[in-house]
Write a structure and sequence with these properties.
15 strands, alpha/beta, six-stranded parallel beta sheet
Length: about 325
């Protein structure tokens, strides 16, 4: 048996229960990971609501948690790249991270960045993969290009700023007054306080926009992109008519687990180019409070759930 945070019905964070459930057993193509820490993402309230059960492939009972850092406990017969004792971090496709153990496929995890402890590493996978796959794969961001990143102090935005800088881009990022200092710490070239300044007064002719907000922010973003540029949105499909009218591209972004991407991200972390922003560490039993905070979409960096003690070196 193991302790886990479980939803037996879809709904608000208060449907979550902290209880004992059977420990999973790895199939031939899976590894069992003992989880040291997991983190909270804006995607968690969406999966919990049940509105996107088809898209996320979720079913009840549901254990949330798309970010894990832990130690491989045992491996199935067909696993070749992982062995018991390996320190890993990753993004299990169907969640399950808010528990003492989870089973993963080989392509969902990679070696944990050596320079991070497990709590820090658990803050990385989903947010960093979303930023990496948007900037490197979709926008193909090049040195000298300019990107506008909305919500720069959030889980995805904070990684996107650092990845864009590591790729040699010029970064304009938005956040509230309280988070202007964080934007600068992360390497932002032009920090915009959206409570005082319209971003379109500052950002003009940019090559790319990364928008985790949608609605009015997305609607106002088309006009700041140069011809041939791209608007990427995490929460909506960009308006085709707007894109055609302006001669720009658009993409709805959804991250996917990828061991090769996680390995590249780990190299950037160990080289000192990217660091996760952890603002709060809570025990697993306080997952409901963590989930309620994530649902506000105003978290600075990431909230991490500590599930077990850091292993002794």
């Amino acid at each position: 048996m193991m302790k886990a945070v479980v939803a037996h019905e879809y709904g608000a964070p208060d449907v979550l229960k902290f209880e004992e459930v059977p420990r999973p057993e790895p199939q031939d193509d899976e590894a069992l990971v003992r989880i040291i820490a997991s983190s909270v993402n804006p995607a968690d309230p969406l999966t919990l609501s049940g509105k996107y059960a088809k898209e996320f492939g979720t079913h009840l009972p549901l254990i949330p948690g798309y970010d894990i850092a832990g130690i491989v406990e045992k491996t199935g017969a067909n696993i070749t790249k992982l062995k018991a004792g390996d320190a890993v971090y990753g993004y299990p496709t169907f969640g399950g991270g808010w528990a003492q153990y989870v089973t993963v496929k080989e392509w969902e995890v990679a070696a944990k960045p050596k320079s991070l402890n497990f709590v820090e590493a658990a803050a990385v996978p989903m947010g960093a993969l979303t930023a990496w796959q948007s900037l490197a794969d979709v926008a193909k961001l090049q040195p000298g290009q300019t990107i506008l990143i909305h919500g720069g102090s959030g889980g995805v935005g904070s990684f996107a700023i650092q990845i864009a800088k590591a790729r040699g881009a010029h970064v304009i990022a938005t956040a509230s007054t309280a988070n202007q200092d964080l934007l600068k710490q992360l390497g932002t070239d032009v920090a915009v306080d959206y409570t005082k300044t319209k971003f379109e007064d500052v950002a003009k002719n940019v090559d790319a926009v990364l928008d985790p907000v949608g609605k009015e922010t997305l609607a106002r973003s088309y006009g700041v992109v140069k011809k041939g540029g791209i608007v990427m949105c995490l929460v909506a499909l960009p308006d085709r008519a707007e894109l055609q009218k302006r001669g720009i591209h658009g993409a709805a972004i959804s991250a996917h687990p990828d061991a090769a991407d996680l390995t590249q991200i780990a190299h950037l972390i160990d080289a000192g180019k990217i660091k996760p922003i952890v603002t709060q560490v809570l025990p697993l039993g306080e997952a409901i409070a963590a989930q309620q905070q994530a649902a506000t979409h105003h978290t600075r960096g990431k909230i991490v759930l500590r599930i077990a003690d850091e292993p002794k070196a």
